[in-house]
Amino acid sequence: MMRRENALMLAGWIVLALLPLWLPYVGGYTALGTKVLIYGMGVMALNLLLGFAGGLSFGHAAYFGLGAYGAGMTLKYLAPSTPLALLVGTLAGGIAATVFGPLVMRRRGIYFAMITIAIGQLLYFVAVRWNNVTGGEDGLAGFERQPLHFPGWVFDIRNETKYFYVVLACFTVAVILMRMLLASPLGHTWVAIRENRRRAQFLGVRVDLYVWAAFAISATFMALAGALNALLFNFTSPQDLHWILSGDFVIMIVLGGMRNFWGPLLGALIYIFAQDYLSSVTDNWMTFIGLLFVAIVLLFPRGILGLLRRRGRAAA
Amino acid sequence: MSLLRLDSVSRHFGKLQAVQDVSFAMDAGELRAIIGPNGAGKTTFFNLITGFVPPTSGDVWFDGESIRDKPVVYRVRKGIVRTFQITEVFPDLSVYENVRFGVETAQGVNGRPWLPRDKRTAIARRTDELIEVVGLAAKADRVVSELAHGDQRVVEIAVALTMNPRLLLLDEPTAGMGDAETDHMVNLIRRLHSERGLSILFIEHDMQIVFGIAQKITVLDRGRLLAEGTPAEVSANEAVRAAYLGEEAKA
Known about the structure:
The structure holds two protein chains of two kinds. By secondary structure, chain A is an all-alpha fold. Chain A has a domain at 30-242. In chain A, 73% of the residues lie in helices and 2% in strands. A six-stranded mixed β-sheet of chain B has the order 6-7-8-3-9-10, with helices on both faces. In chain B, strands 2-1-4-5 form a four-stranded antiparallel β-sheet, with helices on one face. The longest helix of chain B has 18 residues, at 179-196. Chain B is an alpha/beta fold. Chain B has two domains: 1-79 and 165-251, P-loop containing nucleotide triphosphate hydrolases (Rossmann fold, 3-Layer(aba) Sandwich); 89-163, no CATH class. Helix content of chain B is 38%, strand content 24%.
């Protein structure tokens, strides 16, 4: 069983690695594949909190956006270094979530959602108002991802295909780390909290602390996704912090299946391809996503992957 | 020295006297039943022992230490572990995952994002062992919410056992069970007591079970201690007969 799953994952990874070769034949382009991986990583990270620890964050765009602005501003104002940009962006989101965590960790259900939205909107308005640094409504431009310098070798990732492989590498590392987390006692504790918070509490588990950890860890990976996204387009805007994007993240997760480790990736794939194809046909592409969303929620509450695997349980 | 001792403990909720001036002592290794008509204060009595509600007056001692003001978690660490009247499990997880979580909690490794292999092996072994003890080995991979009610209660006990209890409190362990399930549960309680030397205090309505397995019985009525003694003493007690008049006393 385990071996079959590993074989499946290896096959999936090979398909991904060869994506720049085959994607054009199905009407896509490399940057679209890159975007799917970036959003996929982000929503898989959000799903650590949402699907596994049971915390409904409606404000995770805040950390996506912080990652994006952190990376963009590093390149623009600090130093022309891609690794540094990614590091600063990731840390910006991770640290912010760690600081906001105590505001969030004791809340449950709708209150959890509300406070996460509020924090997200706060950051959104900072980005809009502080326009001499952030570029305000127009967004942050005027930076470009820089070639990676290795000893004796320069990898010029300004090329889209090469950048795809940078993203694929980040995605792979992030996915391995997230899987390890879910298979660890910490991951088991998250699931236990989701399943029966009271019971976990009575066993002596400091529930708040682990919700905080889930929030911070999930936001850190989300910030990495945001940083990679800013470098993909060499641009970011307040939309990357807005609660509408947070809602899109949740939609992707629900589409794919939130009780499943890979579900959100599938959700991101569907969402982003639908957006790309449908938006060239009609401005009202969101209607179709909406209909699909309603159908899934009503008919397959465990999402598309949850449907494929009859019982999509924890990755562990 | 008693394992557990309550000195004139009372608890009111507003005007309601849930438990009134009850003194109680239990030795290590005892299998004791708490009985009493509905509203006798049995569950409140449990809550006072486990720390879910503090007493209005009186003192609670465990193993020679006053635990009156200690929180639930402290008491769990000391070995006072309970199950609930309503089944409390992690419904969407397998039997194995339920028990493993308990084992990891008992070993204090909850927050660890990574464990060395020998630790993981030790946790897996302990998990298997406890599932074996409660007789659920064949159902270890089943999702708990899909199990029969009786098996879910057994899972609860397995999770309670992970906490290395010195005193196990069971709140109506056979409530809502069929005959076969009840037999299984009664046997389990008996085995935990005789084979593992566990001190067990249980609330139970089924008098056949109570008189069948308890070494001593404590009877509560309207928040007060009504009687206490061996099954023979309690069944001969006039006050108990009066309290149960028309109910189980006839049976």
